[in-house]
Amino acid sequence: MAIEMLYFAWVREVIGTGHERVDPPAEVETVGALIDWLAASSDTHAAAFENRERLRAAVDQAFVPLDAAIAGAREIAIFPPVTGG
Amino acid sequence: MIRILVTPDPIDVATEVARVEVEGAGGIASFIGRVRADDGVSTLELEHYPGMTEAALEAVARTAAARWSLAAVTIVHRVGPMGPGERIVLVATAAAHRQAALDACAYCIDRLKTDAPFWKREVTPEGTRWVEVRAADAQRATDWA
Protein backbone atom coordinates (compact mmCIF):
# COMPACT_ATOMS: atom_id res chain seq x y z
CA MET A 1 0.00 0.00 0.00
CA ALA A 2 1.78 3.14 -1.20
CA ILE A 3 1.59 6.18 1.07
CA GLU A 4 2.44 9.77 0.16
CA MET A 5 4.71 11.13 2.92
CA LEU A 6 4.91 14.88 3.54
CA TYR A 7 7.50 16.64 5.74
CA PHE A 8 7.47 20.21 6.97
CA ALA A 9 9.77 22.76 8.62
CA TRP A 10 13.03 21.33 10.06
CA VAL A 11 11.85 17.76 9.52
CA ARG A 12 11.72 18.54 5.79
CA GLU A 13 15.14 20.23 5.91
CA VAL A 14 16.86 17.38 7.76
CA ILE A 15 15.38 14.68 5.50
CA GLY A 16 16.20 16.75 2.43
CA THR A 17 12.82 16.48 0.73
CA GLY A 18 9.25 17.64 1.38
CA HIS A 19 7.56 14.54 0.03
CA GLU A 20 8.18 10.97 -0.98
CA ARG A 21 6.14 7.90 -1.82
CA VAL A 22 6.74 4.91 0.44
CA ASP A 23 5.42 1.37 0.57
CA PRO A 24 5.83 -0.01 4.10
CA PRO A 25 5.31 -3.71 4.89
CA ALA A 26 1.99 -4.82 6.37
CA GLU A 27 3.38 -5.15 9.91
CA VAL A 28 3.87 -1.35 10.01
CA GLU A 29 0.49 -0.51 11.52
CA THR A 30 0.89 2.85 13.30
CA VAL A 31 2.42 6.25 12.63
CA GLY A 32 5.08 5.49 15.24
CA ALA A 33 5.95 2.18 13.56
CA LEU A 34 6.12 3.98 10.21
CA ILE A 35 8.55 6.49 11.72
CA ASP A 36 10.68 3.59 13.05
CA TRP A 37 10.64 1.92 9.63
CA LEU A 38 11.61 5.15 7.85
CA ALA A 39 14.34 5.90 10.42
CA ALA A 40 15.90 2.51 9.64
CA SER A 41 15.92 3.32 5.92
CA SER A 42 18.42 6.20 5.91
CA ASP A 43 20.68 8.32 8.10
CA THR A 44 18.78 11.51 7.28
CA HIS A 45 15.43 9.99 8.28
CA ALA A 46 17.05 8.68 11.46
CA ALA A 47 18.39 12.16 12.25
CA ALA A 48 15.03 13.87 11.62
CA PHE A 49 13.13 11.34 13.73
CA GLU A 50 15.68 11.04 16.56
CA ASN A 51 13.53 12.74 19.21
CA ARG A 52 9.91 11.55 18.98
CA GLU A 53 8.74 14.12 21.53
CA ARG A 54 9.48 16.84 18.97
CA LEU A 55 7.38 15.20 16.25
CA ARG A 56 3.71 15.62 15.38
CA ALA A 57 1.71 13.86 12.68
CA ALA A 58 -1.34 14.12 10.47
CA VAL A 59 -3.07 11.28 8.63
CA ASP A 60 -5.04 12.41 5.58
CA GLN A 61 -4.79 16.02 6.82
CA ALA A 62 -6.07 15.46 10.37
CA PHE A 63 -3.82 15.68 13.44
CA VAL A 64 -3.27 12.28 15.10
CA PRO A 65 -1.17 10.97 18.00
CA LEU A 66 1.88 8.89 17.02
CA ASP A 67 0.17 5.66 18.11
CA ALA A 68 -2.65 6.20 15.56
CA ALA A 69 -3.33 3.43 13.04
CA ILE A 70 -2.37 4.06 9.41
CA ALA A 71 -4.64 1.47 7.76
CA GLY A 72 -6.09 2.99 4.60
CA ALA A 73 -4.08 6.21 4.87
CA ARG A 74 -3.22 7.89 1.57
CA GLU A 75 -1.22 10.85 2.92
CA ILE A 76 0.79 11.05 6.15
CA ALA A 77 2.63 14.16 7.27
CA ILE A 78 5.40 14.38 9.91
CA PHE A 79 6.36 17.78 11.29
CA PRO A 80 7.38 19.74 14.42
CA PRO A 81 4.77 21.28 16.77
CA VAL A 82 2.96 24.06 14.90
CA THR A 83 3.86 27.74 15.47
CA GLY A 84 1.39 29.88 13.50
CA GLY A 85 -0.58 32.95 14.47
CA MET B 1 -20.60 34.02 6.84
CA ILE B 2 -17.15 32.47 7.13
CA ARG B 3 -14.15 33.69 5.17
CA ILE B 4 -10.80 31.87 5.26
CA LEU B 5 -7.81 33.10 3.30
CA VAL B 6 -4.21 31.83 3.30
CA THR B 7 -2.17 34.14 1.13
CA PRO B 8 1.37 35.31 0.30
CA ASP B 9 -0.01 38.84 -0.21
CA PRO B 10 -0.13 41.67 2.39
CA ILE B 11 -3.30 41.76 4.52
CA ASP B 12 -5.67 44.66 3.79
CA VAL B 13 -7.24 45.37 7.19
CA ALA B 14 -9.78 47.97 6.04
CA THR B 15 -11.18 45.69 3.35
CA GLU B 16 -11.32 42.64 5.59
CA VAL B 17 -13.00 44.42 8.51
CA ALA B 18 -15.52 46.06 6.16
CA ARG B 19 -16.45 42.58 4.89
CA VAL B 20 -17.71 41.51 8.32
CA GLU B 21 -19.85 44.66 8.74
CA VAL B 22 -22.92 42.63 7.84
CA GLU B 23 -26.56 42.94 8.85
CA GLY B 24 -27.10 42.03 12.48
CA ALA B 25 -23.50 42.76 13.46
CA GLY B 26 -23.78 45.29 16.27
CA GLY B 27 -20.25 44.59 17.47
CA ILE B 28 -17.10 43.77 15.56
CA ALA B 29 -13.79 42.69 17.11
CA SER B 30 -10.48 42.21 15.34
CA PHE B 31 -7.00 40.96 16.14
CA ILE B 32 -3.90 41.63 14.07
CA GLY B 33 -0.63 39.79 14.62
CA ARG B 34 2.55 41.44 13.28
CA VAL B 35 6.16 40.42 12.83
CA ARG B 36 8.34 41.51 15.78
CA ALA B 37 11.94 42.58 15.27
CA ASP B 38 13.05 40.73 18.44
CA ASP B 39 16.71 39.63 18.43
CA GLY B 40 17.37 41.40 15.15
CA VAL B 41 14.89 39.33 13.16
CA SER B 42 15.02 40.68 9.60
CA THR B 43 12.65 38.22 7.94
CA LEU B 44 9.96 35.85 9.18
CA GLU B 45 9.09 32.94 6.92
CA LEU B 46 5.77 31.13 7.27
CA GLU B 47 5.55 27.57 5.98
CA HIS B 48 2.23 25.70 5.95
CA TYR B 49 0.46 22.52 4.87
CA PRO B 50 -1.70 23.52 1.89
CA GLY B 51 -5.18 22.04 2.09
CA MET B 52 -4.97 21.04 5.75
CA THR B 53 -4.31 24.65 6.74
CA GLU B 54 -7.48 25.98 5.17
CA ALA B 55 -9.54 23.11 6.62
CA ALA B 56 -8.12 23.68 10.10
CA LEU B 57 -8.85 27.42 10.00
CA GLU B 58 -12.34 26.72 8.71
CA ALA B 59 -12.96 24.34 11.63
CA VAL B 60 -11.82 26.99 14.14
CA ALA B 61 -14.06 29.61 12.50
CA ARG B 62 -17.08 27.27 12.36
CA THR B 63 -16.74 26.36 16.01
CA ALA B 64 -16.54 30.04 16.99
CA ALA B 65 -19.48 30.96 14.75
CA ALA B 66 -21.68 28.33 16.41
CA ARG B 67 -20.53 28.98 20.00
CA TRP B 68 -20.99 32.78 19.87
CA SER B 69 -23.75 32.98 17.21
CA LEU B 70 -21.54 35.10 14.97
CA ALA B 71 -22.94 37.06 12.04
CA ALA B 72 -19.56 36.79 10.32
CA VAL B 73 -16.02 35.60 10.97
CA THR B 74 -12.90 36.09 8.86
CA ILE B 75 -9.46 34.56 9.35
CA VAL B 76 -6.67 35.69 7.02
CA HIS B 77 -3.19 34.21 7.52
CA ARG B 78 -0.19 35.20 5.50
CA VAL B 79 2.45 32.69 4.32
CA GLY B 80 5.93 33.05 2.81
CA PRO B 81 8.55 35.66 3.74
CA MET B 82 7.66 38.93 5.48
CA GLY B 83 9.50 41.72 7.30
CA PRO B 84 9.21 43.34 10.76
CA GLY B 85 5.96 45.25 11.16
CA GLU B 86 4.15 43.32 8.44
CA ARG B 87 0.86 41.64 9.32
CA ILE B 88 0.94 37.87 9.80
CA VAL B 89 -2.64 37.18 10.74
CA LEU B 90 -5.99 38.93 11.00
CA VAL B 91 -9.09 37.67 12.80
CA ALA B 92 -12.34 39.63 12.55
CA THR B 93 -15.55 38.57 14.26
CA ALA B 94 -19.00 40.12 14.06
CA ALA B 95 -21.82 39.47 16.54
CA ALA B 96 -24.96 41.16 17.79
CA HIS B 97 -23.10 42.49 20.85
CA ARG B 98 -19.51 43.25 21.79
CA GLN B 99 -18.81 40.49 24.33
CA ALA B 100 -19.54 37.67 21.88
CA ALA B 101 -17.42 39.35 19.21
CA LEU B 102 -14.50 39.93 21.60
CA ASP B 103 -14.60 36.41 23.08
CA ALA B 104 -14.91 34.75 19.67
CA CYS B 105 -11.98 36.78 18.35
CA ALA B 106 -9.78 35.72 21.27
CA TYR B 107 -10.86 32.10 20.82
CA CYS B 108 -9.98 32.09 17.12
CA ILE B 109 -6.48 33.46 17.57
CA ASP B 110 -5.74 31.19 20.55
CA ARG B 111 -6.99 28.07 18.77
CA LEU B 112 -5.38 28.71 15.42
CA LYS B 113 -1.99 28.83 17.14
CA THR B 114 -2.34 25.15 18.09
CA ASP B 115 -4.83 23.80 15.51
CA ALA B 116 -3.48 25.06 12.18
CA PRO B 117 -0.34 23.65 10.53
CA PHE B 118 1.93 26.69 10.21
CA TRP B 119 5.63 26.87 11.04
CA LYS B 120 7.63 30.06 11.57
CA ARG B 121 11.30 30.46 10.73
CA GLU B 122 13.23 33.55 11.74
CA VAL B 123 16.15 35.03 9.83
CA THR B 124 18.53 36.81 12.22
CA PRO B 125 22.12 38.11 11.97
CA GLU B 126 23.25 34.80 13.56
CA GLY B 127 21.44 32.68 10.95
CA THR B 128 18.01 31.10 10.59
CA ARG B 129 16.09 29.28 13.28
CA TRP B 130 12.71 27.54 13.55
CA VAL B 131 10.48 29.08 16.18
CA GLU B 132 9.77 26.81 19.14
CA VAL B 133 6.33 26.33 20.67
CA ARG B 134 5.53 28.43 23.74
CA ALA B 135 3.92 26.39 26.51
CA ALA B 136 1.67 29.35 27.36
CA ASP B 137 0.15 29.19 23.86
CA ALA B 138 -0.83 25.55 24.28
CA GLN B 139 -2.34 26.35 27.67
CA ARG B 140 -4.38 29.27 26.32
CA ALA B 141 -5.79 27.07 23.56
CA THR B 142 -6.88 24.33 25.98
CA ASP B 143 -8.38 26.88 28.39
CA TRP B 144 -11.21 27.42 25.87
CA ALA B 145 -12.35 23.79 25.96
From TrEMBL, chain A:
Signal peptide: none annotated. Pfam families: ThiS. Transmembrane segments: none annotated. It comes from the Bacteria. NCBIfam families: moaD. This is Molybdopterin synthase sulfur carrier subunit.
Automatic annotation (TrEMBL), chain B:
The keyword Transmembrane helix does not apply. It comes from the Bacteria. It is an enzyme of class 2 (transferase). Pathway: Cofactor biosynthesis; molybdopterin biosynthesis. One of its GO terms (molecular function) is molybdopterin synthase activity. It holds the Pfam family MoaE. Keywords: Molybdenum cofactor biosynthesis, Transferase. Its EC number is 2.8.1.12. Belongs to the MoaE family. Heterotetramer of 2 MoaD subunits and 2 MoaE subunits. Also stable as homodimer. The enzyme changes between these two forms during catalysis. Converts molybdopterin precursor Z into molybdopterin. This requires the incorporation of two sulfur atoms into precursor Z to generate a dithiolene group. The sulfur is provided by MoaD. This is Molybdopterin synthase catalytic subunit. The lineage of its organism: Bacteria, Pseudomonadati, Pseudomonadota, Alphaproteobacteria, Sphingomonadales.
